[in-house]
Amino acid sequence: MSKIEPKNVKEALTDEFWIEAMQEELNQFKRSEVWDLVPEPEGMNVIGTKWIYKNKSDENGTVTRNKARLVAQGYTQVEGLDFDETFSPVARLKSIRLLLGVSCILKLKLFQMDVKSSFLNGYLNEEVYVEQPK
Amino acid sequence: MRLIRFLVNQRYRKGGTNKTLFVKDDNGRLMIAQIYVDDIVFGGMSNKMVQHFIQQMLSEFEMSLVGELTYFLGLQVKQMEDTIFISQSKYAKNIVKKFGMDNGGHKRTLAATHLKLTKYENGVVVDQSMYKSMIESLLYLTASRPDITFAVGVCARYQAEPKMSHLTQVKRILKYINSTSDYGIMYSHSENSMLIGYCNAEWVGSANDRKGTSGGCFFHRNNLISWFSKKQNCVSLSTAEAEYIAAGSSCSQLVWMKQMLKENNVEQNVLTLYCDNLSAINISKNPIQHSRTKHIDVRQHFIRDLVEEKVVTLEHVDTEEQLANIFTKALDAKQFENLRGKFRICLHEEM
After folding, report:
1. By three-state DSSP, how is residue B223 classified?
2. Strand, coil or helix: what is B248?
3. Residues B30-88: pLDDT tens digits?
4. Are B66 and A88 within 8 A, CB to CB?
5. Partner residue opposite B220 with nearest CB, options A60, A88, A101
6. Residues of A in contact with B67 (CB under 8 A)
7. Can you list the positions of beta strands (E) in A21-104?
8. CATH 3.30.420.10 domain span(s) along chain B
9. Chain B partners of A89 at a C-beta cutoff of 8 Å?
């Protein structure tokens, strides 16, 4: 594992762990069949991309995973043109505490798992063009 | 989302209030799953159900099984035989260090009892962005530390133009955190079935605009689930009125909890709200308009409907037993520690 978080692609490409992390993210895109390579369209808003590097750590603060995520620079999108409504359902901390309380009462043991790439599971209704990652 | 559709197809019931909660009832044996963006927390009454759920999820989605719940949204969770301990001790230590207070000494309480902050403090204006970031960090800590809620809330009112005295007070909170960073909330199993709340108000708590502060805390059985400490958004003419407004906010909180519990398959019949002001209780029970209460806004009166329909009962509680005091005023060390103990905010080893 790498302990540092690179600021840009150039820095990341000097570290084998981060190269591997980026490859994993790209494979994820490939497996989910989210994009096709097309010639640059004319008169369309093309969104740039950016790599974000984050270290995930456990409850003791030890780095457990180097996570590279390719994000679209969505701030250039125009409402109505590139997207309509945006929405991601999120629970409140209160509900989480309530769940913890309930599980004490029902004597449930709680587990956790995470979806490897939650954003890829959403659907897009609009056609969106992103730049090819550098 | 594909995940939601999948769960609904698997006969999971989607919550109405909490749209990210999914419960499956298999002849009284429950399986509960709570989704938080890409994290799922789940548990079931039988091992078989849990295993089945894991298999299903793994085959349908690309998942990584993290295992037993230990760390979620910054909350450290310790699951024991029939208790759960929630804390943010690592986060707490981090912010104390980040703001350079780890050698700043220790304090038993959050604020001096006589302290009254106002907007117009004398003294130099301090760096606003640092002040804001301190408040922001502390606000997140309130997720497992209701004991600091009131003090942080008061300091948060002065973010627009923080002065030296405000900053000194925030540093005092950090000193308190420094000596109690390992504290958290303990939840436990119990057979009694109660949903109770305490509500309180401090009349004219804010010296600037004469608005009061509402405070309340809500227990499901022994477990403190939710609480609030908030400056009221209108000026009230009497303590009773301030208390009545606090009781109104508390009622909506209790009703929300009842709904949430129902979605978690825990039925709750009577909700009890404790209030230390008899006049406020009387206003809620007596539909006759008094000359002293006729100006109270209609929206505050929805509590009457709830009382009339026997959804909520309002009971009187002595000031000494009033747990919500911790959310409306600065207390001395003895009172403060006593209440903190009743909330079961403690060290993990203490229990």
Report:
1. strand
2. helix
3. 999 998 877 899 999 999 999 999 999 888 888 887 789 999 888 999 999 889 999 99
4. no
5. A101
6. 111-112
7. 46-47, 49-57, 63-72
8. 191-346
9. 1, 4, 19-20, 35
Considering only CB atoms, which chain B residues are within 8 Å of A122? 1
- Choose the closest CB to A110 out of B19, B45, B79: B79
ipTM of the complex in this document: 0.89
A121 found inside a domain: yes
With a CB cutoff of 8 Å and minimum separation 6, the contacts of B24 are B10, B11, B12, B13, B30, B31, B32, B49
What are the per-10-residue average pLDDT scores of chain B (351 residues)? 84 85 89 87 92 90 85 91 93 93 86 78 87 93 94 92 93 94 94 88 75 91 92 82 88 89 84 90 74 66 84 90 92 93 90 58
Measured between CB atoms, does B267 come within 8 Å of chain A? no
Q: How many domains does chain A have?
A: 1
B44 inside 8 A of chain A by CB? yes
| pTM > 0.80 | no
Of chain B, the percentage scoring pLDDT greater than 90 comes to 48
Interface test with A, best of B42, B81, B82, B259 (most A CBs within 10 A): B42
Q: Is residue A3 part of a domain?
A: no
- Please state, in angstroms and rounded to a whole number, the distance separating the CA atoms of residues B76 and B88: 6
CATH 3.30.420.10 fits B191-346, yes or no: yes
Domain that holds residue A109: 9-130
Neighbouring residues of B2: CB distance < 8 A, sequence distance ≥ 6: A121, A123, B61
Domain assignment of residue A2, yes or no: no
